[in-house]
Amino acid sequence: MKTSLFAAAAAALLAASPIVQPHPGDFGPLEGDPAPAAVRQIAEDAATAPIPTEDEVASVLAGPLAEHPGTAHVSVRDAVTGEELYGQNQDAGVAPASALKLLTAATALRTLGSERQFRTRTVLVDPARSAVHTQPQPASTWQPAAPAQPAPAATAQPAPAATTQPQPSSWTPQPTPSSTWQPQPSSSWAPSSSSWTPSPSSTWQPSPSPSGTPSPTPTQSPVPTPEPTPSPSDAPAPSPTPEPSKSAEPSKSAEPSKSGEPSQSPSSASPSEGESDGEGVPPSSSPKPSGPKQLVLVGGGDVMLGTGASDASRVDGRAGLATLAEQTVKGLEEQGVTGEVELSLDLRLYAGDGVNPGWSEGLLEEGYISRVQPLATFGGRPQAGTAEERVADPAQFAAQRFQSMLKEEIAESGADLQLQVREDIPQTTVPREMVEEADSVGEVRSAPVREQVDYMLAHSDNQLAEALARNAAYAVGRVPDHHGAAGLMTDVAADLGVDTGGMDLKDACGLSGQDRISASALTGVLAASAEMPLLSAALEGLPKPGSDSTLSERLVGTAAEEVTAAKTGTLLESVSLTGRVVTPRGRVLVFSVVLSGIDSQVGEARAATDRAVVALAQL
């Protein structure tokens, strides 16, 4: 049965800016030139190339899918019109494995914008100013920060900051004729549906402006409605946490080990699966601290930190801990700080303990994923490289490395500082608000969301997928845990015009064998990405045969090699291949082939999905 996304999603596909302004103090401001609104993933001549008929598609797929393990779920759409040309069990919810990262990518881009950066910083605080600081506040205790308040409309003049009044954090979207981001009736963007209670200081209101583009705040510059980039916002970034190494999908053949897809699944039970007003100096009436000054390393959502100097040529290591240590020592000297200093952590950007109950212990032990925290190096690894094992506690590892570098920098610089080295870096007991309001002593910024999405898709990086989804959830006022992230992903799919019937997501990386999404929904996300400039990175980042990706050894030497880009997915019970292909006549198609219930026959299932894609490339 043929269906079309074009009419249902027309308004959403024309949207060219992210749906929210991230909270002040948590995400870095936009920098550089905005991505061109004219960029399209589908060449103009593809719109006039002949569209294959349903019979033609069914005919070429009959042979390749004649023999395969498990049950086939297939959807093929025209990328220009969104029309579904062929379907086989396409509407049934199925475990997509790492193909789910396509929706994660669309969610991050749609919510945060393509150029947003996450920042990791250090701040100096004084526990003497804390009303309650006797018991450490665990990382799982999350309280929403005071978010940014979008101005009423793109054409309205921003009101002076001094007159801005706090507003409740729950809201009801009001549809307007020209709005390009209209939640479906089933969507619920209100934080009130979550288990947490917004604090009275929360001022964020994600009400869409008439144009669908958030209006600039007094310190922001307006972003033209047709542009796909988000409006500037002065805010620090959440830093995700690293997870045990390995890839995202278990496999018995062909895909790079530990790159993002597990080479073998542990067990069938598991998915086979604002501006600061000071430096934290107490007022004269406050008691003077008698102990060391407290320096806090604040996790801002960057799980791709490097252990050396910041490297502008890399995504993993764009922001380096060595650079942060150098900046921090200089910053302390500039502030006139001397004497004893001790380091603590703030990981309160995320909620929960970072371990999804849908992941088996084997996935953690074998390094396919690690505890998800807003601070990590190299996607939860101690060194760069997807073959590296992940560490059990990514944030603690990063903090220990930073402490060592800080000590070395103090010694080399001759600064009048004495760092009190701690065997385990504790969580700060200072209230979260104090940390958020404190000026940065040092600060490093991640690669933009667009580049992180490319990396995540190419290497199927589970840790990065989970962090991006939590960052997106936090940005819109959802609880930044696996529940909030999964719910947001479902709502983004609905708002893109995708049928979410049967969709039931448990995580953002696809490791959970309990995830459910249809093949038709996966092609729907790709069709939306093909038409919406802001989501272009979701298609640009798709692995290509023979490239440094999970397709490095697949489809090479076939008719599909030069005309296909696709996201792989592998669990012991499910294998998928989802992407785009250009026919010999120049038409661009998007496809998803998922084989479920394969009973660990990973090699045979991959061979069948590859044959199907090669056949589509010869339509």
What does it look like?
This protein is an alpha/beta fold and 619 residues long. The protein has a domain of 276 residues: Beta-lactamase. The chain is elongated and about 80 Å long.
Which labels suit this protein?
619 residues; alpha/beta; Beta-lactamase; five-stranded mixed β-sheet; 13 helices; elongated; disordered N terminus
How would you summarize this macromolecular structure in one to three sentences?
With 619 residues, the chain is of the alpha/beta class. The protein is 24% helix and 12% strand.
| Gyration radius from CA atoms, angstroms | 24 Å
Report the sheet with the most strands, covering strand number, pairing sense and barrel closure.
Answer: 5 strands, antiparallel
At CATH level 3, the topology of one domain is Beta-lactamase
Main sheet: strand order: 2-1-12-11-10
Number of strands: 12
CATH class of one domain: Alpha Beta
Question: Helix and strand layout, with pairings?
Answer:
Layout: H1 6-14, H2 54-62, E1 71-78, E2 84-88, H3 101-112, E3 119-125, E4 293-298, E5 302-305, H4 321-334, E6 339-346, H5 361-365, E7 375-377, H6 394-413, E8 417-420, H7 432-437, E9 440-445, H8 449-459, H9 462-475, H10 482-495, H11 519-531, H12 536-540, E10 564-571, E11 574-582, E12 588-596, H13 602-616
Parallel strand pairs: 4-6, 5-7, 6-8
Antiparallel strand pairs: 1-2, 1-12, 3-4, 3-9, 10-11, 11-12
